[in-house]
Amino acid sequence: MITIRQEEEKDYQQVFQLTEEAFREMEHSDHQEHFLVEKLRDSEAFIPELSLVAEDENGNIAGHILFTKLKIVNGSESFESLALAPVSVKPEFQNQGIGGQLIREGHDIAGKLGYQSVILIGHEKYYPKFGYEKTSNFGISFPFDIPEENGMAIELVPDGLKNRKGIVKYPKEFGID
Ligand SMILES: CC(C)(COP(=O)(O)OP(=O)(O)OC[C@H]1O[C@@H](n2cnc3c(N)ncnc32)[C@H](O)[C@@H]1OP(=O)(O)O)[C@@H](O)C(=O)NCCC(=O)NCCS
What we know:
This protein is an alpha+beta fold. The protein has a single domain (about 5-170), classed as 3-Layer(aba) Sandwich (Aminopeptidase). It has helices at about 10-25, 35-40, 100-110, and strands at about 5, 45-55, 60-75, 75-90, 115-120, 135, 140, 150-155, 165-170. Strands 1, 2, 3, 4, 5, 6, 7, 8 and 9 form a nine-stranded mixed β-sheet that branches. Strand 3 and strand 4 form a beta hairpin. The longest helix is centred in the middle third of the chain and has 15 residues, at about 100-110. Bound molecules: coenzyme A. Coenzyme A binds near residues 23, 26, 86, 87 and 96. Coenzyme A binds near residues 26, 96, 97, 125 and 126. GO terms for molecular function: acyltransferase activity, transferring groups other than amino-acyl groups.
């Protein structure tokens, strides 16, 4: 039995460890994701309600997901969206649907908070299961080169990305622009 709930300060150490562990064997990783989570918690882009943990019945933290504020910039216009990054499931808990639960619950909360879309860079086979499609379908691009299929977005409400063309601007803590 897995419960998804908002992360609390007492979880920080377990989240740090599981994030490091989840990305340890990942090829396309700088292996700094656990430090990124720490930086983002102190950032203006942080939304406490959208830092979620998956907890098992014994109180072990099996996974974590973080959505932070992100901008889509088009000349002098700027639109608010969310970045999904990172999502981590402890290796021994992977492939049991926990990543999916974290993503879906995150979408639900984000929608209730009034956010209209989410943008991410990730595996093109995983995120479409949850409704993500290529950002290029929405006229949204990244300020650096990535394979087109790895930049993805979801509308949390109908037309949530209509007339929201532009270039993604990640929070500075990501260090990617
Ligand atoms: C990606 C991750 C969060 C998925 O969580 P999970 O709880 O294992 O995933 P789920 O149980 O919801 O989904 C499992 C499905 O996703 C697939 N999947 C899992 N990780 C994947 C990945 N990195 N790339 C492509 N597919 C992946 C599995 O093969 C499985 O497919 P199936 O349903 O067709 O059998 C988890 O595997 C993880 O922490 N990986 C390491 C860190 C990472 O890659 N994070 C995402 C990048 S930001």
